[in-house]
C-alpha cells in the first residue's frame, strides 16, 4: 500500500471512485456524475488552493483518494477544513481509509489548521465509526438537509481538534 500525492494520471481512477459514490450511495449529496473535464478542474483548483489530494495505490492501481478543503469560505473559517475520503467498494475494510485520514490529519497539523470537520450521512454507520476511532466527536446533526434516492437525508457533523 502506497499513500502519495495525487497526479493527473490518477484522475480516471478518482473519477470512477467518485462517480460510484454519487450513483450508489449517500456519501455524496450529488446527483450528477463528474466528467474527466470536471475532475481535472477539481484537481487543478485543489492544487492552486494548496489543498491536498492523496491517493492509495495498490499494485499500481489507485483504489482510494482523500482530500480536505476549506470548511466555509468566510475568512474566520480559515483554520478549519473539511475532509473527504473515498475507498473503492472492493477495497474497504483493509485499513486504507485509516492510512489516508492519518495522512490528512498530519498534513492539516503541518499546515497550521485548528480543526477538521467531517460531514457524514447519518445512515453511513461505517464512516461514523471510522471517524470516531480516529478521535472525531459528533458535534451536530441537520435533519432533512438533503434529498436523494427518494428519501430525506440527515447530515452528521463530526470534529477533530488538532491542537
Give a quick rundown of the structure.
With 163 residues, the protein is an alpha+beta fold.
Explain the layout of strands and helices.
Elements: E1 2-5, H1 11-24, H2 36-48, E2 53-58, E3 61-70, E4 80-87, H3 96-110, E5 115-121, H4 125-133, E6 137-148, E7 151-161
Parallel strand pairs: 4-5
Antiparallel strand pairs: 1-2, 2-3, 3-4, 5-7, 6-7
Helix pairs in contact: 1-2
Describe the protein in words.
- The chain has a single domain, classed as Gcn5-related N-acetyltransferase (GNAT) (Aminopeptidase), CATH 3.40.630.30.
- 31% of the residues lie in helices and 36% in strands.
- It has helices at residues 11-24, 36-48, 96-110, 125-133; strands at 2-5, 53-58, 61-70, 80-87, 115-121, 137-148, 151-161.
- It has a seven-stranded mixed β-sheet with strand order 1-2-3-4-5-7-6, with helices on both faces.
- Strand 4 (80-87), helix 3 and strand 5 (115-121) form a beta-alpha-beta unit.
- The protein is globular.
- It comes from Runella rosea.
- Residues 1-163 form the N-acetyltransferase domain.
- Keywords: Acyltransferase, Transferase.
- GO terms for molecular function: acyltransferase activity, transferring groups other than amino-acyl groups.
Helix content: 25-40%
Q: At the fourth CATH level, what is the homologous superfamily?
A: Gcn5-related N-acetyltransferase (GNAT)
What's the CATH class label?
A: Alpha Beta
Mass-distribution shape: globular
**Gyration radius over CA:** 15 Å
The major pleated sheet works out as: 7 strands, mixed
Return residue spans where pLDDT drops below 50 for at least 5 consecutive residues.
none
Q: From the coordinates shown, what is the CATH architecture?
A: 3-Layer(aba) Sandwich
Report how far apart the termini are: 29 Å
Please, how many domains? 1
Domain N-acetyltransferase: 1-163
Pfam families: Acetyltransf_4
GO molecular function, one term: acyltransferase activity, transferring groups other than amino-acyl groups
Organism: Runella rosea
